[in-house]
Amino acid sequence: MAAPDRKRRHKAQYVQGPAVKRGRAGAPRQLEPGMQGILITCNMNERKCVGEAYSLLGEYGEQLYGPEKFSDQDDKLSGSEEEEDDVEAALKKEINQIRTSTEQKLRRFQSVESGANNVVFIRTLGIEPEKLVHHILKDMHTTKKKKTRVILRMLPISGTCKAFLEDMKKYTETFFEPWFKAPNKGTFQIVYKARNNSHMSREEVIKELAGIVGSLNPENKVDLNNPEYTIVVEIIKNVCCLSVVKDYVLFRKYNLQEVVKTNKDEGQQNLSSVTEEESSKEIKSAEDSNELKSGDRSQGILLAQTVAWHVQRHKYPEAMGQKRFPELPSPSRYLTYSI
Predict the structure, then answer these.
(1) How confident is the model at residue 162 (pLDDT cuts 50, 70, 90)?
(2) Which of 246, 261, 276 is the last residue of a domain?
(3) Are residues 45 and 118 in the same domain?
(4) Do the domain assignments include residue 87?
(5) pTM > 0.70: yes or no
(6) What is the 3-state secondary structure (H, E, C) of the chain?
(7) Per mean pLDDT, which range of 34-38, 68-72, 82-86, 300-304 is the poorest?
């Protein structure tokens, strides 16, 4: 008996659409709207940067929040349903055991793909990014102890949204309230940086955000020299990362390499720059002097040749013809020079 005909499925039916990269427990592995964390720039070594970030954040995280407590993601099935028989109960129990053994524990700090080169994003859970990063920078600024080699800047990110102007305006109207809504007020500045994004205008974003801050309280004023608050806007692809930080100028734009420098180091750096300028000026003056001296020597040689020519011409007029020896300038113009 011939087997029944079966229609072959089209290849397109097996193809799945693009999905967001996720971990074993469903946790996102790349930067996306709705996250909180810490944005870190590094010096051409992202893997080492992640290691330094885990070490530094773990050290200060325990100081502020105590030892880390792990919490498994709640993906377990509800036990309210009644099992129809023992086979179904045993099957569900086995499935739960497999999920429990394979699911990822949610860590306090977890690195995700940022979407830009030399940029690392550490997703945080159960902490305040501004408080933690400010604590780190304050301690490093006080002790002047360098604790990282490849990490450059460490910026807390309190909120993320889609990197479109209308989405940003809607999101920041409530995001800015804890700092700028009356009766709260303060001086502020806005720093903007976009990576792998070309559809946003820096001037337009700053203008709109400054207008929102002013609408929350008219007493909020712009101060570009030493503001009380700094609004950090970091755009990576289609994600806008936002935060409001303090002591941005004092902590050298939240640069971990610059914040540990002492006044002596700064003085030596300024002195070296001044010394380089002075040495370059001395070299230039020496070159000019050498050129002048060489010019004097050439003029002296020319004067000697001219005087010798005139002497020869007067002593031996018959041997000094115009064809063989063309007329040279008169030596009277060189009388001011010494041979």
Answers:
(1) very high
(2) 261
(3) yes
(4) no
(5) no
(6) CCCCCCCCCCHHHHCCCCCCCECCCCCECECCCCCCEEEEEECCCHHHHHHHHHHHHHHHHHHHHCCCCCEECCCCCCCCCCCCCHHHHHHHHHHHHHHHHHCCEECCEEEEECCCCCEEEEEECCCCHHHHHHHHHHHHHHHCCCCCCCEEEEEEECEEEECCHHHHHHHHHHHCHHHHCCCCCCEEEEEEEEECCCCCCHHHHHHHHHHHHHHHCCCCEECCCCCCEEEEEEEECCEEEEEEECCCCCCHHHECCCCCCCHHHHHHHHHHHHHHHHHHHHHHHHHHHHHHHHHHHHHHHHHHHHHHHHHHHHHCHHHCCCCCCCCCCCHHHHCCCCC
(7) 82-86
